[in-house]
Amino acid sequence: MAKDPSGFILFPLVVHSFDLVVSSVGILSIRGTRESGLIVPVEDPMMILQKGYSVTIFFAVLTFGLSTRWLLYTEQAPSAWLNFALCGLVGIITAYAFVWITKYYTDYKHEPVRVLALSSATGHGTNIIAGVSLGLESTALPVLVISVAIIAAFWLGHTSGLVDETGNPTGGLFGTAVATMGMLSTAAYVLTMDMFGPIADNAGGIVEMSQQPESVREITDVLDAVGNTTKATTKGFAIGSAALASFLLFSAYMDEVASFAHVPFKQVDIAVPEVFVGGLLGSMLIFVFSAWACSAVGKTAQEVVNEVRRQFIERPGIMDYKEKPDYGRCVALVASASLREMIKPGALAIISPIVIGFLFRILGHFTGQPLLGAKVVASMLMFATVAGILMALFLNTAGGAWDNAKKYIETGALGGKGSDCHKAAVTGDTVGDPFKDTAGPSLHVLIKMLATITLVMAPVFL
After folding, report:
1. What angle do CA 90, 94, 95 make, to 5 degrees?
2. b vs e for 216-227, b when ≥16 Cβ sit within 10 Å of the residue's Cβ?
């Protein structure tokens, strides 16, 4: 390892400092090309955002290369910094690939969403079937990208020339960490694109409530559709970074167990029945968590619908704009339910690994298998991460695609607003909302939280 490790310690801070700079340059490079007052065709907002992202990525590659040469150069392995710069490049390419793949599956300019919109022509059921199949299919490309990224980064790090006292290569995991930093080196710009979504959505709502002319609503609809795509790309980006980061946290957990138990702990054998059961429980955790998150949305929606119906009966003038609805009541219902309904999934995520690890630790004590608790928890963490990544990709992409299929029909395609086709698409959008806004985004938090809890609680499992 390097004689002076300070460069390796400061490296993440420097990369993320540069992230703020390059993302700011990317954001400032965004310019509309049309003059105000001229009546010309509306530009594609997604193209403008992608130009800014390309500028950000270009500068991110340059600053990342400079940072690795400046901070990761060591006398013992003079070419190691170049390997790590390539690891960063792998991460940056992974981020770009994730953004592009999610855009392909959720933007209505591409075939998948148009096929989904077309399926609405034959009814509500076919729309749901097409949406679910699109979501399931959309997991394939991101998983291939992540797989290539992890292996490439690990081997670039492994062959960097960094060795420990005994001469064993030690750069593999650090290579994966550098790839994760590379992926996050444009995070500020990606978050900016994410913020674009809710702002455009709310603008559309304000335009509708203030009874603006249809031409204004058409512009906000285009922005809203792009916002749905940018929200979906950010969620894909977050899942990709969670996948890379969880691999590191998993390795950190195994190192911690080895240091506490004073025995080597290098691999987990899933051919051992108890360890395999741990994996099954980890996968189950993801599905139960997603189910509870979706059912919470369903229950709360029912409460809100009943409240709105009650207000329509008690205040018939609402529809003619003669009476004002009681907005506060609906907001209070949603806010209190959101806090109340998250207690159960949150408790499940925190308590499960601790209980499972402790129970199998006791079982291992009686059956003469030391480290059984730690091995079962490791297996649980592995399987939960894999299932969580796939589930989150499915939920996020399906939800975004359903929403944009509805938006595509609202542009006048397949009968436009109010048609039977549109009604079927609205059903799909309603199903997609808890997918993309509740269960999907909370899964990458769950993946990271499981890894953190197992890391902190490791001594309990020994």
Report:
1. 120
2. ebebbbbbbbbb
Partnered with residue 163 across adjacent β-strands are 169
Residue whose C-alpha is closest to residue 100's, from 222, 193, 176, 197: 193
How many whole angstroms separate alpha carbon 341 and alpha carbon 343? 6
What are 447's two structure tokens?
A: 């993946």
**Cut 0.85: pTM above it:** yes
Exposed/middle/buried for 267, CB within 10 Å: 0-12, 13-18, 19+?
exposed
Q: Which of 198, 149, 203 is nearest to 176 (CA)?
A: 149
Which parts of 159-272 fold into alpha helices (H)? 171-183, 187-209, 214-261
* Cα distance from N-terminal residue to C-terminal residue, the chain: 30
pLDDT band at residue 104, thresholds of 50, 70 and 90?
very high
CA distance readout (Å), 57 to 24, 71, 94, 263, 301: 12, 21, 11, 44, 41
Helices (H), 262-342: 273-314, 327-341
Mean pLDDT across 237-244: 86
Tens of pLDDT, residue by residue over 23-80, are 999 999 887 666 655 555 667 888 888 899 999 999 999 999 999 988 888 877 788 8
Indicate the length of the chain as a whole number: 462
Does residue 274 carry a pLDDT above 70? Answer: yes
Q: Which of 117, 132, 204 is nearest to 419 (CA)?
A: 117
